[in-house]
Amino acid sequence: MWREMSVMLLLSAGVVWGRSTVYHFINQKMNWTNAQSYCREKFSDLATISDEEDNEKAFLLRTDESANVWIGLHKSNGKVPPLILIHEQKTWEEAVEYCREFHHDLASANDLRAREWVQAVATDATTPHVWVGLHYTCVLEFWFWVDGKVYVDGNWATGQGGPGSDCGTSGAMRKNDNKWYSLPSTQKMNFICSLCNDPQASL
């Protein structure tokens, strides 16, 4: 069962004209399920935050920066965290630092559902590939996610990744593709941050 927030700020998506979404600030305390029902009845749905512009719009509505908010993504069987696309172009290490400073971490995608979310967010990228939290260690000779899990997906594009990869490479997803690519970590591109570790507990 979804827990209620001790302090609740609820964001709901309103009418959309073109690509401009109107957000409404609802100062009520409720769990995620009730919040979704409320927004669908009164407006359109819980807010979807998919890029920096959406994040800025939603953030400006918060009167208390330390308060938690519900948005239109939640933990399900796939355990998918909310994600945000950053249009700045950074190296892999710079992307990690940015995500950890301003959000949670560079996005990890340990299962099919998470990979599909990464793919959906990546479609708005301005670079051919986007960095994710996948990195190769030459010392131990395996790929791992920044959340500490060893990579076991096997979803590499043809000729990419796997054991024996080049040192100094990290994982990226190509725009409009759901395969992983092994690219030099010094390459600069857009990247995807996770907004929290556990959306049920942290949003």
TrEMBL record:
<protein>
    <recommendedName>
        <fullName>C-type lectin domain-containing protein</fullName>
    </recommendedName>
</protein>
<feature type="domain" description="C-type lectin">
    <location>
        <begin position="18"/>
        <end position="75"/>
    </location>
</feature>
<dbReference type="Pfam" id="PF00059">
    <property type="entry name" value="Lectin_C"/>
</dbReference>
<dbReference type="InterPro" id="IPR001304">
    <property type="entry name" value="C-type_lectin-like"/>
</dbReference>
<dbReference type="InterPro" id="IPR016187">
    <property type="entry name" value="CTDL_fold"/>
</dbReference>
<keyword id="KW-0732">Signal</keyword>
<dbReference type="InterPro" id="IPR016186">
    <property type="entry name" value="C-type_lectin-like/link_sf"/>
</dbReference>
<feature type="signal peptide">
    <location>
        <begin position="1"/>
        <end position="18"/>
    </location>
</feature>
<feature type="domain" description="C-type lectin">
    <location>
        <begin position="88"/>
        <end position="194"/>
    </location>
</feature>
